[in-house]
Amino acid sequence: MPPTQIVGILNVTPDSYYDGGKWNAVDAAVTRAGEMLEEGADWIEIGGESTGPTSKDVTLEEERLRVIPVIEAVHRAFPEAKISVDTYKASIAEEAIGAGATMVNDVTAGRGDERMFAEVAKFAEVAKLVLMYSKDPTPRTTIAETQYDDVIKTIKAFLKERSEAAIKAGIAKDRIILDPGLGHFVSSEAKYSLEILARLSEFQDLGCPIFVSPSRKSFLAGPENLPTAERLPGTIAASVIAAQNGAAFIRTHDVKDIKQALDVAREIFLISKG
To answer: 66, 175, 251, 259: which one is catalytic?
Structure first.
């Protein structure tokens, strides 16, 4: 069980499914970033547009106004902190890197803006790029009971194609991180997300670090249809299993809890290996 980097979620949006509206002001966002760093976050990921079901399109200018001042302020307050930007827009990625971000998390895997790969390639020595699988070609995911004959085979083929396209555009393979997607990005049927976590190690032969974001997502609601506020136990379980199965990055709202759980799991793993 190799060490897993924790990516703390800092959404500066009014409509994100769990923390929408909490950290919109720059001062509040910086305070929260500091809390997550103290709790053990390796990265702070700042996002200005929700991509969940029923979320609304955000103009380029609105996203810029939400995200860039926060990245600048967090970078100024915590110059050693590693910052990621959650965006599919190439120009936002460019400005974010200029403001201090060193990772771009694109939920469309370059399909949302055809300029994304070329833009990130300009910063080849600086920026990492996360490419995520989504059943939907647009940034706005849908609620659909999508069916798969073999969900892992489908996602692996997609991630292989998108990573090859990124490499062809000039992004070194060692700068690419792959996210198989979870929740509605894959299917509203929870079984597929659970299978992805169970078989996560099968993605390792793609040759890139694996990034997962199970945090309080719909597939953890269970038969009781738990609200997001009650999905922390499931989030912890999913995160530990993901780390055990090879995830290099865990993206989460709950940094302190996930850090503690991963530390205990790693101690147990090391004892089991003698």
So the answer is: 251
83 DSSP β-pair partners: 44
| 202 vs 129: CA distance, rounded Å | 21
Query: 98-128 burial by CB neighbour count: b if 16+ within 10 A, else e?
Result: ebbbbbbbbbbbbbbbeebbebbbebeeebb
Q: Which of 82, 140, 175, 217 is catalytic?
A: 217
pTM of the model: 0.94
pLDDT digits (tens, 9 = 90+) for 237-262: 999 999 999 999 999 999 999 999 99
Order of strands, edge to edge, in the sheet holding 5-11? Answer: 176-179, 128-132, 103-106, 82-86, 43-47, 5-11, 249-252, 211-212
Active site residue 217: yes
| Residues 58-112 pLDDT 10s | 899 999 999 999 999 999 999 999 999 999 999 999 999 999 999 999 999 999 9
Domains by residue range for the chain, with CATH: 5-272 (3.20.20.20)
Whether residue 251 lies in the annotated active site:
yes
